[in-house]
Design goal:
CATH architecture: Up-down Bundle
InterPro entries: Snf7_fam (IPR005024)
Order of helices and strands: HHHHHHHH
Helix content: over 70%
CATH class: Mainly Alpha
CATH topology: Ferritin
Protein name: Snf7 family like protein
Radius of gyration: 22 Å
Number of strands: 0
Strand content: under 5%
Structural class: mainly alpha
Keywords: Coiled coil
Distance between the termini: 70 Å
Organism: Aduncisulcus paluster
Number of domains: 1
Shape: elongated
């Protein structure tokens, strides 16, 4: 215990170790979800085969929609796992610098990656908690941490727009640095792509019968 019974401030090494463990734990949970999605997809494909043999293409398409949706969720989760790994690496790099200076340095890279994770429902809680901790440790700007704290359960488009405002306020060109830019996709085009994926899935199962 420190002076007046207060707990001593954690060292950069202790903070980095805690964050890395939290990130690894989050990755493990997401990977479990991915495995469940894979297992469920195998079941759905077997069910599609059954209804196709009965000539029930309406039910087959409904099931195909579920498989396509699950695949998209899996792709998003796999991307989130990679983002978590990138943050771990960035924290290690920042820690190496902290060992020389005695304190973490502000990191635009970490702010950008944490901003991306705000829109991931699986990481919303850990993202907010860690961003606040990183703000106290001097890695991210207070303005950024405050913005993350105020974001609740909103859709990804609203989150992206909100985070873009924060980055602009910090003088960060998020679109150019992350290699991504807001893209407005017509609903009809999205639905057309989904239909094509469903048709392709059904054709592949028909061929296997």
């Amino acid at each position: 215990m420190g002076l007046f019974g207060r707990k001593p401030t954690k060292t950069p090494e202790e903070l980095a170790a805690e964050w890395k463990e939290q990130l690894r734990a989050e990755q493990r949970e997401i990977k479990k979800t991915i495995r469940k999605i894979d297992s469920e997809e195998r079941k759905q494909k077997r069910e599609i085969q059954k209804v196709m043999k009965r000539g029930d293409k309406v039910s087959a398409r409904i099931l195909a929609k579920e498989v396509v949706s699950a695949r998209k969720t899996k792709t998003r989760l796999e991307s989130t796992v990679l983002q978590l790994s990138s943050i771990q690496m960035a924290v290690r790099q920042n820690l190496a610098q902290a060992r020389l200076s005695g304190a973490f340095s502000k990191s635009t890279e970490i702010m950008q990656m944490m901003g991306q994770l705000v829109s991931a429902p699986e990481c919303a809680k850990i993202c907010k908690n860690m961003t606040r901790e990183m703000e106290k440790a001097g890695i991210v700007e207070e303005m950024f941490a405050d913005a993350v704290d105020t974001i609740g359960d909103v859709d990804e488009t609203e989150v992206s727009a909100e985070m873009s405002k924060v980055f602009e306020g910090l003088g960060i060109d998020i679109a150019s640095k992350m290699g991504t830019a807001p893209v407005s996709t017509p609903t009809a085009k999205v639905e057309e792509t989904a239909d094509e994926e469903e048709d392709e899935l059904i054709r592949s199962i028909e061929a296997a019968l």
